[in-house]
What we know:
Helices cover 28% and strands 29% of the residues.
Amino acid sequence: MEIFCLEDFKDEFDKLKVKKAYRTLEKDIIYYFFNKPIQDLNSGTRLNNSDETPYIKKRLRGSGGYRVYFLILIKKENIYLMFIHPKTGPDGAENITDESKSALYKKVLASIKTNDLYKVTLNKTQDSILFEKL
C-alpha cells in the first residue's frame, strides 16, 4: 500500500504539528494509516457510495480530535490524504462545508491524473512522516 497526499494536507499538517496543542497529531496519523492492511482503513463516514474508491471522513482521537478526509483506491491499494483539521484548540474548526468536501474530491481526482501529489512515507525509525513531491 502506498500513501499520497494533496498539498492542502501537507500544508495543514506542517502548520499543526509544530503547535503544542496538536503534539499527538503525527503519532495519530502514523498509528492510523501506516503498517495496516487497506481493509482496516475503510472505517469512518463514507462521503460517496463507491466501494472501489471510497471517499472517507475519519475521526482521529474521537469527537474532539481531528478530522481527516481521504480517498482509497482499493484496486491499486493507494490512499490519498486530502485534508485534516482539528476540532478543538487554537486552530479548531467545525466540519468543512459540503462545497469544500466536493472541491477536495474534484481536486484529488485531478491531482491523481496529473501526478501533482506528495508521497507520504516514514523515516527509518518510523516515528516521523516524510513528504516527497512526485
